[in-house]
Design goal:
The chain is mostly helical and 211 residues long. The chain contains 10 helices and no strands. Helix 5 packs antiparallel against helix 10. The longest helix is centred in the N-terminal third of the chain and has 24 residues. The protein starts with a helix and ends in a 17-residue tail after the last helix.
């Protein structure tokens, strides 16, 4: 089988898995259901994935890979670190708004995988955190962000906050516009929380020694 055909079939299986997991939940879903939704034989699934957990983790990794590529491309167009962070928020939650089924699988079903929780090394997830941390570090060098903030800790906090908003949105079955408003508020809280403020002017001493 040609590599192009193999890649297309892999994507077809993953898209089918997203629909099946979103409809039935990870635990209840069976590989045979995914195969049927993808229009392939049951055995074909195992040519691409070891098991159901492997399919779920691959969905997450593909999503993170695509998001990283998009973040790198879009933030390269901006110079101001604060605007770049705001763009990251827009991109992460924008992807969620467009693909509710995928958001449900990543935010809810992924937490049901014992393999993901106990064994996943997360190299692709670390790439995403590194991109955020890199923007923060650049902002610190340029005097935009406070120097006492750990870029890596901020990256984890930012992802966690946005993941929490996604989970709340999915569970509440809210309209996409509500998540868009939440994204705006979250971006402001996160960015303004690390923005470097001008040092306060020294207090002038009044006559008589009082201030």
């Amino acid at each position: 089988m040609r590599l192009v055909d193999r890649a297309k079939k892999r994507q077809r299986i993953l898209k089918a898995a997203v629909r099946v997991f979103a409809r039935h939940g990870f635990y209840v879903s069976r590989v045979s259901q995914i195969a049927q939704a993808a229009g392939v034989a049951d055995g074909t699934i195992y040519l691409y994935f070891r098991n159901k957990d492997d399919i779920l983790i691959s969905i997450f990794e593909d999503r993170i890979d695509a998001l990283c590529d998009l973040v790198e491309k879009e933030t390269a167009k901006l110079d101001d670190p604060a605007r770049r962070l705001r763009r990251v928020v827009d991109l992460q939650l924008g992807t969620v708004r467009k693909h509710r089924d995928l958001a449900e699988v990543v935010s809810i079903n992924l937490r049901q995988s014992n393999r993901f929780l106990k064994q996943y090394a997360a190299p692709k997830f670390n790439r995403y955190l590194d991109l955020i941390a890199g923007i923060v570090a650049d902002g610190q060098r340029r005097g935009v962000f406070r120097s006492d903030v750990s870029p890596r800790v901020f990256a984890c906090a930012m992802f966690g906050a946005l993941d929490g908003l996604t989970l709340t949105w999915v569970i509440g079955k809210s309209a996409p516009e509500r998540l868009a408003r939440a994204a705006e508020g979250a971006a402001t809280i996160l960015i303004e929380g690390i923005r470097k403020r001008p040092a306060p002017a020294p207090r002038r001493e009044r006559k008589g020694g009082r201030t």
